[in-house]
Design goal:
Helix content is 40%, strand content 21%. It has 238 residues and is of the alpha/beta class. Strands 2-1-3-4-5 form a 5-stranded parallel beta sheet, with helices on both faces. The structure holds calcium ion (CA).
């Protein structure tokens, strides 16, 4: 299973049991995994081993996950997926603003974790090809301001286009309400969440097989939205 193209994942988690469980499962999937129990070792590992993805627990002794994330972002753009038992919106928004790409709240499904890891690694591998405006089946056709979804094509209004382009260029990444409102409408609109509800509803009518039960453009309650490249379903929790 271990080929030379395998991706390296750094798991930063102080609970031994949890770290071992993650490590074993990821190795079984063919990833090369390094587990670290504290921030000092984790920082060292990021410098020395250049992982392809970091799984980061927020509650760590000495240097917590927030501070680690801030320090990682000074030296690397490697995808950071946060694993947390904390789920206050303020914490999640803070960690996303510090540069984390996505988060999962414990307990979570292993299948979902693997799907998000694949999405983040794929996105980081393709982020230097700006002409590639795709997220899974969704393709943006710039010259005609249309979106192609499978065999269907839809013409978009300028606002629809700008919003969908934001999601597609950040495929697989959580975007906060505040970020989207500031980016598309301007900083003075940062509390106008209704705008986002209206426009995400319109985007879903183009890209979702069943717009009322979205599986691609998914709401992160109280946080924002994430556009997945593959359908995002519910799984058994572990
Ligand atoms: Ca912990």
């Amino acid at each position: 299973m271990h080929g030379k193209n395998e991706k390296a994942i750094l798991v930063i988690e102080d609970e031994d049991k949890y770290r071992r469980l993650l490590t074993a499962n990821l190795e079984f999937e063919g990833y090369m995994v390094k587990g670290k129990a504290n921030g000092i070792e984790a920082l060292q590992a990021v410098y020395e081993e250049e992982p392809d993805l970091i799984l980061l627990d927020l509650r760590l002794p000495e240097i917590d996950g927030f501070e680690l994330c801030r320090r990682f972002r000074k030296v690397t753009s490697v995808p950071i997926l946060v694993l947390t038992a904390l789920n206050t919106e303020a914490d999640l928004i803070h960690i996303l603003d510090l540069g984390a790409d996505d988060y999962m709240t414990k307990p979570f499904s292993l299948q979902e974790l693997l799907a998000r890891i694949r999405a983040l690694i794929r996105r980081s591998a393709s982020q230097f090809t700006p002409e590639d405006l795709c997220c899974g089946n969704i393709r943006l056709l710039k010259d005609v301001r249309e979106v192609e979804v499978g065999e269907q094509r839809y013409h978009l209004t300028p606002t629809e286009w700008n919003l969908l382009r934001e999601f597609v260029t950040h495929c697989g990444k959580v975007l906060t309400h505040e970020y989207l409102l500031a980016k598309i409408w301007g900083v003075e609109y940062q509390n106008e969440h209704e705008y986002l509800r209206v426009y995400t509803r319109k985007l879903r009518s183009y890209i979702e097989p069943a717009p009322k039960r979205p599986v691609y453009l998914v709401t992160q309650a109280g946080i924002g939205y994430i556009l997945y490249p593959t359908p995002h379903g519910t799984e058994l929790r572990i």
